[in-house]
């Protein structure tokens, strides 16, 4: 063990595009856009939004699987996973997305054995309809997967926690971990909130930064309030 646990978002972080958005664009019946607007305006939480949106999907199992086979992940993610395993650093995928989709996509890369916390997608009645449940929700949290609760659980192991993420579903958890590798909107959130982070464009960057995270130098460089190194003037 290296003293760190890694929690990694899926949609837009591991995956190249947002899986749910791509499914709604392809198979969503009218009404999903209104739910999206209500969520973005803060009128509803992501769990309520996604439960409603999944209920509006109109697709067969075969259509779902064919669509998922066209979605890709960051090309360097398999190498990143291999390095974490080589260094005995636990990695868990933590997503407000769909467990079935994540398993199918990662399975093409031989990575469907990664520990996963996500919403559960299941067929509904009648045919072509689907339903969402949220086994990782938490009281008082409007997200389908409460990433804060997962981060708190990781902290109980006695290790430091790294979050790798990109967007709004990662904002709350970012304040409850020890360090963040941030993409996209999460960069500005960490900067504004004073959260120790480094910006990354993808897992090539994460792979390069990992050794410095594990040896402590990265955290020391980016923790606010750390005293500056003393300089002796001759």
From TrEMBL:
Top-rank lineage group of the source organism: Bacteria
Molecular function in Gene Ontology: phosphatase activity
Annotated signal peptide: none
Keyword terms: Hydrolase
Statement: the UniProt record of this protein carries the keyword Hydrolase: yes
Keyword Hydrolase carried by entry: yes
Coiled coil: none
Matches recorded under Gene3D superfamilies: 3.90.1470.20, HAD superfamily/HAD-like
Protein name from the UniProt record: Phosphatase
Organism for this UniProt entry: Dyella japonica DSM 16301
